[in-house]
UniProtKB/TrEMBL annotation:
UniProt xrefs under InterPro entries: Beta-barrel_OMP, OMP/PagP_B-barrel
The entry's keywords: Signal
Source taxonomy: Bacteria, Bacillati, Cyanobacteriota, Cyanophyceae, Leptolyngbyales
Signal sequence region: 1-30
SUPFAM superfamilies attached to this UniProt entry: OMPA-like (SSF56925)
Protein name per its UniProtKB record: Outer membrane insertion C-terminal signal domain protein
Stretches assigned to the Outer membrane protein beta-barrel domain: 22-175
Length: 175
């Protein structure tokens, strides 16, 4: 896996900005209550990288995302669909969930992205690839969840070996 210093610095800075307020909030409460609900939601998704060749430009679109909380375990099974006008990618994944504040988790995990049309731009590159993710989710009111995450596709562009980075956010309904 070949990561450029710029990619690593961007991902590190983005993760620190997104997650730092949660750790401060989590330190204030002695025992955070883990959000353990399952949900399905929808929102926006932005691919912010490109592979440097045709049909791999950064794209903007939507996402449908779901979480199934594994009972009595700090892990979840997740599924995401990122889509734009030309392509989509389906990403099943497994994450480790860490409570940081009341009904708020941060999570990190791994999965695999299946691109519908190889060679066409999606938020996660233009070919199937392993995907790492880091994110946050919180039940803001009874039954309503907000979520945001960053997904990194490893070697996600045909012919260039470049990785992809996509940011997602949305609102979900707990079930």
């Amino acid at each position: 896996m070949k990561l450029s210093l710029k990619s690593v610095a961007t991902l590190s800075a983005l993760s620190a900005l997104v997650l730092s307020p949660l750790f401060v909030a989590g330190a204030a409460s002695a025992q955070p209550v883990r959000f353990d609900g399952s949900y399905v939601g929808a929102g926006v998704a932005a691919g912010i990288t490109n592979g440097g060749r045709d049909n791999d430009a950064a794209t903007f679109g939507g996402n449908i995302q779901g979480r199934f909380a594994v009972p009595n375990a700090p892990v979840s099974v997740r599924g995401s669909v990122l889509f734009n006008g030309n392509n989509s990618v389906i990403i099943p994944s497994l994450t480790y969930d860490l409570p940081v504040a009341k009904n708020t988790n941060v999570y990190a995990g791994a999965g695999y992205g299946f691109v519908q049309k190889d060679g066409q731009a999606s938020q996660m590159g233009n070919k199937d690839a392993a995907v790492l993710s880091v994110g946050v989710e919180s039940e803001v009111t009874r039954g309503v969840v907000v979520y945001s995450d960053a997904k990194y596709g490893i070697n996600a562009y045909q012919g260039s070996g470049a990785g992809s980075l996509s940011l997602q956010g949305g609102v979900g309904i707990r079930f």
